[in-house]
């Protein structure tokens, strides 16, 4: 009873922040799904984190492992769970009952931005638009439980099968929308419907001849050969195994047809992989987007009260200051850079339309102090209080929410707490124009000659304004936000980083790369060059940061063996992990499995010479074939001609590097 009272009390406490955060989010241009908020306790939060944010998942040992890890992180490492939000329409968000009101407000504003991203990003719509996630995962959980409860099915066999499939959960085609129309083989129908049977039927053979010459064993062999015919490598390994794989039966010592439950479990887990793909392909964008708008609402629009701001600042510092490659920090910095760049473009293009200002003399004739003063928000926008409401009447009508202003004058709105309620989107954009912020004051002046020349190429009407003041009065203060919304709708992490991680961004934010030194046996900074930093970042986020593996042949060497290929771009596979994965894949294929890859080998003599000269030895790249036949592994050399098709182009971001990025 006490617990129920506490939950109800917390729900009442966050009711107003939930309502007001939604209104503020929409004022700022966000268009989120509706969000249902749930109050949960500490243990429930840990359970949800272990279950990837959902209340029900299929039975498996890994959930307990994740729960234990989360509890220890909270208890011993000082970690704190702030929020969980589920991509659905409506979205679902969970607030931990024991968190302070400042933390709850931060979570709510963060969630509203996430929900906007879910609703408007094309990659979320591509992977998960037609999936009711909570219902889907609940059905899967119920079905797996019923399979495990079947007296004719060994529970341990189900858990092992799930393990086998999970080792390939990221081996889907993340560039394609989820498709479920692949035909699952059914031997009862295959004889009458597959292509081979149709061809035999066209030959008008007698039943006697057909049964004697083209028996079931021959037909099965032909089907397996057809499974090996691939027009191009198949990236969706789970779909390939569903359609062409067989299970290894240790009792019979050979491959057998998958049981119905095995096909069903495989397809359920594949469906879940596609659902979670959207989160994995947009991690930096999504978390950065939420961090940006949370900061805007909590800090710059004072959604955190004066008595809550210090606690919120500590909250934000912990999130953005966590070690390693932090998607919150990187994403927020990139969104701010996009905003600044678009705002600078707007201001610069207006300046270059002033008589006497060209891209050649820009830095010599423009008074940047004057420009900074001219683009500052109107005083009536900068300081909105109950005593300055009349000042808003002198502003252009598109910058003021006339209805909100009238309600504020009537005392229906506490404008001292919620100044944004009397402003429009355009008014808020001017109020928060990024080039006015102290940390961005030098961004306009730092524009390079090459960028100026590029702007000038497409500049028409280059003497539109007589004075700088006239030009600055015509600045569109919403261009930065508008550009952010366009990018939010169309990009994923790879295209986001590729398009907006520029040399200027890398230099301004002091990014660099480091890697393990074969010479010294420790880690060293290797480069602060833009190209190197960008490539390593791209490597980290392409294909969910995992190696790209595809099926190259389902009838390798005409022996019904599987040939996989590792897309190599300069980063080796971890051979130890690869062998363990092949053991799992063997259970899904039922016959020997081969993996072709490229390794780097270093001659000991060359390594010694390099150490003496304090240099890194130059490795030699060689083709290798790793084979597993169910009992032992073999590694063979491959001629370069047989691995050319798995080598990357000059710039290719398709696997995870062993080295980490600072």
UniProtKB/TrEMBL annotation:
Residues 547-598 form the SpoVR-like C-terminal domain. Residues 14-344, 480-545 form the SpoVR protein-like N-terminal domain. It comes from the Archaea. This is Stage V sporulation protein R. It comes from Haladaptatus litoreus.
